[in-house]
UniProtKB/TrEMBL annotation:
Single GO term (MF): nucleic acid binding
UniProt GO cellular component terms: nucleus
Record localization: Nucleus
Transmembrane spans: none
Organism taxonomic ancestry: Eukaryota, Metazoa, Ecdysozoa, Arthropoda, Chelicerata
Species of provenance: Araneus ventricosus
InterPro entries: Homeodomain-like_sf, RNaseH_sf, Transposase-MT_Hybrid
Coiled-coil parts of chain: none
Designated name of the protein: Histone-lysine N-methyltransferase SETMAR
């Protein structure tokens, strides 16, 4: 049968099962309904509800969305990652792609930096402070480490969190 029908042929274990079902009077080829939580289809309304929840609270968890809307964790995960294109960075949901406004802001900031470079050459670089987890780990890892410089603060990430790079610009 594989030679004739290829991937569409039934497996050896399926043939006796279907034979038994047809002898019992079953004429449908679809699977029987399973017990447990019914699967809800991913509809535009559900996607909009999840989107509203995330916009109101970027720190909301998949489990909280699942409980609030009554949809499965898997469905919530699918909506977040495949439909809304969000991912979690530093415990907050952020879009995979920048919005038009974010692109414009990034372009304006880049042009501002370019203008500063043309006016001050490398002097403007002293106004940009960067740091990450590896730059402030000299003190106790469990304590919150603060690197104060004027009105700026870098907070040390807990050891079990992923590194997160911060870029702070002095005003």
């Amino acid at each position: 049968m594989k030679a004739v029908y290829g991937e569409y042929s039934l497996s050896r274990s399926t043939v006796p099962e279907w034979r038994k079902r047809f002898l019992e009077g079953c004429e449908l080829l679809e699977d029987d309904a399973r017990s447990g939580q019914a699967n809800r289809l991913i509809t535009p309304e559900i996607i909009a509800e999840v989107h509203d929840l995330v916009l109101n609270n970027r720190g909301v968890t998949v489990d909280e969305i699942h409980r609030l809307l009554g949809i499965s964790v898997g469905t919530t995960h699918t909506i977040m990652h495949q439909h809304l294109k969000f991912r979690k960075i530093c415990a907050q949901w952020v879009p995979h792609q920048l919005t038009a406004e974010q692109c414009n802001n990034r372009m304006a900031l880049s042009l501002s930096h370019l203008q500063s470079y043309r006016e001050e050459e490398y002097g403007f670089l002293s106004h940009i402070v960067t740091g990450d987890k590896h730059g402030v780990t000299t003190l106790n890892r469990k304590a919150s480490v603060r690197a104060n410089s004027g009105n700026m603060r870098l907070h040390h990430l807990q050891r079990n969190q992923r590194p997160c790079t911060l870029v702070l610009v002095r005003s």
